[in-house]
Amino acid sequence: MTSKLDPEERKALLLALEDTGWRATDEGDAMIKRLLFRDFSDAWGFMAEVALLAEKMDHHPDWRNVYKTLEITLTTHDCSGLSVLDIELARAIDGLAEGRGEVDRDIGRPLMRLADSAANSEDGAEDDA
Q1: What pLDDT does 113 receive?
Q2: Which of 24, 45, 53, 119 is surrounded by the most beta carbons within 10 Å?
Q3: How many CB atoms lie within 10 A of CB 83?
């Protein structure tokens, strides 16, 4: 079973992903990214590429597609939170997305919130985010 990222791993790994447009979901230990494509065909083609990649990694995103908009949510259900699998898949998705589609950053909350809430949970503090 895959384990959740610890607070130090989160701080080290999440900052670079926030720079590429990944955000914390409003609820739960997950991250989300919204991409806007030229049209439905471009969005669908990108999803097909991600699907093949996810199959190879045996780690699958939750996603939602409406016309040219694609929302991708990553979390590891086995450990009920973010794991190294999510980081690896996010990086791979970012590689595929480079030069394609526009990142919509008006979604979720800052990704570093997940690092801060994990550190607070480990210290026994309540997460009020």
Answers
A1: 82
A2: 24
A3: 23
Q: How do the domains of the chain map onto residue ranges? A: 7-123
∠ CA 22-26-28, nearest 5°, is 95
Count CB atoms within 10 A of the CB of residue 37: 21
Per DSSP, 28 falls in state S
Nearest to 33 by CA among 67, 72, 76: 72
- Return the axis-axis angle of helices 7-19 and 84-97, rounded to nearest 10°: 10
Residues of the chain above pLDDT 70, percent = 90
Per-residue pLDDT band for 4 (boundaries 50, 70, 90) equals very high
pLDDT in tens, 17-69: 999 999 999 888 999 999 999 999 999 999 999 999 999 999 999 999 999 99
Check residue 58 and report its DSSP letter: T
DSSP 81-123: B-BHHHHHHHHHHHHHHTTSSEEE--SSB-THHHHHHHHHHHH
Say if residue 27 is exposed, middle or buried (CB neighbours under 10 Å; 0-12, 13-18, 19+): exposed
Domain 7-123: CATH class, spelled out: alpha beta
